[in-house]
Design a protein that fits this description.
single chain; Isopropylmalate Dehydrogenase; ten-stranded mixed sheet; 12 helices; binds 3-isopropylmalic acid; binds magnesium ion
């Protein structure tokens, strides 16, 4: 029997509520496969700062080091509340970015998936949605502006200034582009390369490297698109995209737009892969405004579990069944208050009940 140690970092806000649903799903998978999960629960984020004085405490680091993979909930506090924490220990800077850096999880997969069962959530017109949206955004996750050198100062005249640098070396670019090509090979064999080479030198190098790599994937058609044009095209004609690859900051912004065209960031799971460790997290935040109300939809969290089972554990069939189970719950007319209005003909249920519905469908599959 294969045993996997999973570091479970529920985090802040709605993190623990949606993580509970993810763990229910894991239990089903464990029971019916020749596999066992050892869950290591760790403090991470603002809650860890308040309990341990650090957003990514040593104990959690040791736990993540020892784990085969990491399942993360959400982190962060509301704007005002976060002022209680020194800037460097705020969950994004103090926990999330160090997690990404430590395990060099450079390849961030963010599926923007709108099967027919979910199409009513999208703000796009039916003629634009067509048969549905199936995009894989691949975002470089440990380079660029996020991790480049930062400086702050005051000039002789007393004027304050900042300098942030967008840094990449050819190895980083090449690695993420290979991920893009390999993903395209498994799908429609079309790769949209998102860049800003009309302005940024980093994009010029990025595209040079792409031209060097492309001959290794003769079956893949590369389509070039400027990042600003990509933003428009995602709204006007999302069906043209299958795999999109881009640098860190572009990916942060366009993947949120992906959530926008689906109708909610709550429908955006993600996988963050490094060469030796991966972690999985919803793309959305901790939603402090709805914490503790049992109204957050667990789709992105449970979807992240589905990605983990497929990408780390090779349980492709179970992963597919989880996606199907979630879609079936929506297809039966259920939803949660964060996603839907109560005046529609939706059968409104809470986070827990939604998790139970997923489990019921999963058990029947
Ligand atoms: C994301 C988030 C993070 C990011 C924040 C919380 C630092 O927005 O995962 O997209 O900018 O990468
Ligand atoms: Mg983001």
């Amino acid at each position: 029997m294969k045993n996997y140690k999973i570091a479970v970092l529920a985090g802040d806000g709605i993190g623990p509520e949606i993580m509970n649903q993810a763990l229910k799903v894991l239990e089903v998978v464990e029971k019916r496969n020749d596999i066992s999960f050892e869950l290591l629960h760790g403090n991470f984020g603002a809650c860890a700062y308040f309990s341990d004085g650090k957003a990514f405490p040593e104990e959690t680091i040791a736990m993540c080091d020892a784990a085969d993979t990491i399942l993360k909930g959400t982190i962060g506090l509301g704007h005002e509340e976060s002022k209680q924490i020194p800037v460097e220990e705020r969950p994004e800077r103090g926990a999330l970015l160090p997690l990404r850096k430590r395990y060099n999880t450079y390849a961030n997969f963010r599926p923007v998936s709108l099967p027919p069962e979910l199409s009513h959530f999208s703000p796009l017109k039916p003629q634009i949605i067509g048969d549905g949206i199936e995009i894989m955004i691949i975002r470089e996750l440990v380079g660029g502006l996020y991790f480049g050198e930062k400086q702050k100062g005051t000039d002789a005249g007393g004027k304050r200034w900042v300098k942030e640098t967008l840094e990449y070396d050819e190895e980083q670019i090449s690695k993420i582009l290979h991920v893009g090509f390999q993903t395209a090979m498994k799908r429609q064999k079309v790769l949209h390369n998102v860049h800003k080479s009309n302005v940024l030198t980093s994009s010029v190098l990025w595209n040079e490297i792409l031209d060097e790599i492309a001959p290794e994937y003769p079956e893949v058609t590369v389509k070039q698109v400027l990042v600003d044009a990509a933003a428009t095209a995602l709204c006007l004609n999302p069906g043209q995209f299958d795999v999109m690859v881009m640098e860190n900051m572009f990916g942060d912004i366009l993947s949120d737009q992906g959530g926008g065209i689906l109708g909610s960031l709550g429908l955006m799971p993600s996988a963050c892969l490094g060469d030796s460790k991966a972690y999985f997290e919803p793309s959305h935040g901790s939603a402090p405004d709805i914490v503790g109300q049992n109204i957050a939809n667990p789709y992105a969290m449970v979807g992240s579990v589905a990605m983990m089972l497929d990408m780390v554990m090779g349980l492709e069939q179970e992963s597919k069944k989880i996606w199907k189970a979630m879609q079936s719950v929506f297809a039966e007319g259920y939803s949660t208050p964060d996603l839907s209005n109560s005046d529609s003909d939706i059968k409104m249920i809470g986070t827990d009940a939604f998790g139970d519905q997923i489990v019921t469908h999963l058990l029947n599959s």
